[in-house]
Description:
The complex is a heterodimer.
Chain A: H1 2-18, H2 21-29, E1 37-38, E2 44-48, E3 52-59, E4 65-71, E5 78-84, E6 89-92, E7 101-106, E8 110-118, E9 127-139
Antiparallel strand pairs in A: 1-9, 2-9, 3-8, 4-7, 4-9, 5-6, 5-8
Chain B: E1 2-5, H1 9-25, E2 40-44, H2 47-54, E3 57-62, H3 66-75, H4 97-116, H5 120-136, H6 145-153, H7 158-178, H8 182-202, H9 212-219, H10 221-234, H11 239-255, E4 259-262, E5 267-271, E6 276-280, E7 283-286, H12 289-307
Antiparallel strand pairs in B: 1-3, 4-7, 5-6
Helix pairs in contact in B: 3-4, 3-8, 4-5, 4-7, 4-8, 7-8, 8-10, 8-12, 10-11, 11-12
Amino acid sequence: MRILSLFCFFLLCISTTFGQCINFAKKVGKQQLGDYIHDGNYNATILEEGESAELFKTFFSEQKYRVAISKVEALPDIHMRLLDKEGNVLFDNVEHDYQLTWDFKVESTQMLIVELNVLEREGDSLELINGCVSVMFGLEPTKEKKR
Amino acid sequence: MRSVMTKSTVYILTVMLGAVLLISCNSNQKKQNAEEKDIVESVSVDGKLVDDFKKSKLIFYSLPSPLETAMLIKRAGATYNEDLLNPLSNIDKYSTNRQMALNLGIYSADLSYTSLFDQTQSSIKYMGNAKRLADALGIMDAIDENTLRKLEENIDNRDVMLDIISETFMSSNAYLTENDRPAIAVMVLVGGWVEGLYLATRLTNGSVDNNKRLIDRIVYQKLSLYTVINLLEEYKNNDDISYLLSRITELNEIFEQVEINNTSKIEAETDAETKVTTIKAESEAVISPIVFEQLMKKVKEIRTEFVS
């Protein structure tokens, strides 16, 4: 019975942790898109120092995209690159002071990879920071006036 | 949606479970602000375990959302045709999780399409259906009465309507993903994607010469299909997903006859001042009228099954 209670407590802890990034994505991540319309996809998770993630997405021609990566302040900078499917680097935010919001347009439709790497803090600390990271895609609104 | 690639699944799962428990239950470190109070934590773990844990790489697959697909259709110069939408009255047919999830995606796509073409009354009705299915799937608070009221109050402001739609779609997806129901989340995404493809193919009126830009959008869904298949592969142990994978594989067999080739090297040009990067590449996509006809037929067959 005691073991069962402990197990249930652990499960509760897990579900609580995984349930937190949606609020971060809504309140922090989405704001970075400015006047671009969020595409509605949910790409957020908890990342730790040194961890990396890749996101595969088709970028369509004639559509301008805003990619906005957000992280909790305690996390170190995030290294973001845009790669083609052969791994060629098309954009690297190291060259732009680790900017996490950038606009992209493609002349022909391409499947591209957004690669993220949470940098590690300097020092020998075994204490690892982790926190929510979201990747939001914004679509440039159409210019036409309604009706 | 995400997956984790590891060298030793069992070992890493053990490490991950340990790490998650530590992350989840460890006392919080100093917080930067109230917003981050519950989402920033620190954890001390053994150095070797840390190294192994770091070898894992999270993979996300991002499908064109119903909203993005509707925007692509509209930008391609397509028109509005209400007859193509899944009738609202069909909702009473959906009782299984698979039917409800697929049609939540389908109604979301129809909702996006109606909103982009300013069919506000239809939008409100389709949002109502999306709410009913979300409720039936136990998706808490993604679409509530307040959402419907906000939609009605903003029928003259398309951007606000689109924002409400995108937020409800994200909330549904996040709720399912974060509550250990990723297979249902994938079915919603696949339903939405198939509906977008169905609308696009029907709006060509069956001719590859009718609207070249729209045909182009359809043909390049071959790239998104890679994402769809990868998403489904992740959860193929689920019977519903396994079935959907078999249906989507049939579609893939047709798409494999479509040729997409980059005819020049991909190059990027970045304007640091405007913070815009333009990806320059020439690409050629070819679909024969016969293959297009097969594609239209298969998409209709799959979509008809989903909405029936």
